[in-house]
Amino acid sequence: MIKLKEMLNENVWDRKFGEPLPTLKSVIEKTNESCGCDTGNSCGCKSTLKESSSNYDYNDTVLKDMESETLGKIKSWRKSSGMMEEKEPYKILRKYNKMIAVLLKKCDMELKQYK
User: Which of 18, 37, 79, 89 lies in disulfide reach of 48, CB 3.0 to 4.6 Å?
Assistant: First the structure.
């Protein structure tokens, strides 16, 4: 069982007594600095955290992530010439193409209420 004293000493942030709690802005800056996104370097993380007052920015970020991941996979598959010359990958690609079409249709139906 956890003792009360241990619970009082546990904290999420590395801060000393009297220091202010972290803000969204400070957490975003610290995260972006640690991976190098804020310097323009390609750090490999999925997306750069940013503060925004607009949901458009967040939604657009998700769409860009989806787009880049999908296009990246397609480009890598096209580059693997051994796979492109076989018949079996065609069946696999067709199967997942149908699944993706179904998911996109469902997503479109849910998003139509916000148009």
Answer: 37
| Domain ranges for the chain | 86-115
C-alpha to C-alpha distance for 108 and 40, rounded to whole angstroms: 33
> Hunting for tokens 């067709």 — which residue is that?
94
Q: How far apart are the first and last CA of the chain?
A: 52
The first and second tokens of residue 75, run together, are 């480009």
Q: How far is CA 51 from the centre of its chain?
A: 15
Reported as a single tens digit per residue, the pLDDT across 16-75 is 778 887 777 777 777 767 665 555 555 555 555 555 556 767 788 888 888 988 998 888
C-alpha torsion angle, residues 25, 26, 28, 32 (rounded to 10): 140
d(CA 28, CA 60): 18
Non-local CB neighbours of 21 within 8 Å, separated by 6+ positions: 13, 15
Can you tell me the distance from the alpha carbon of 114 to that of 48, in angstroms, rounded to the nearest whole number? 26
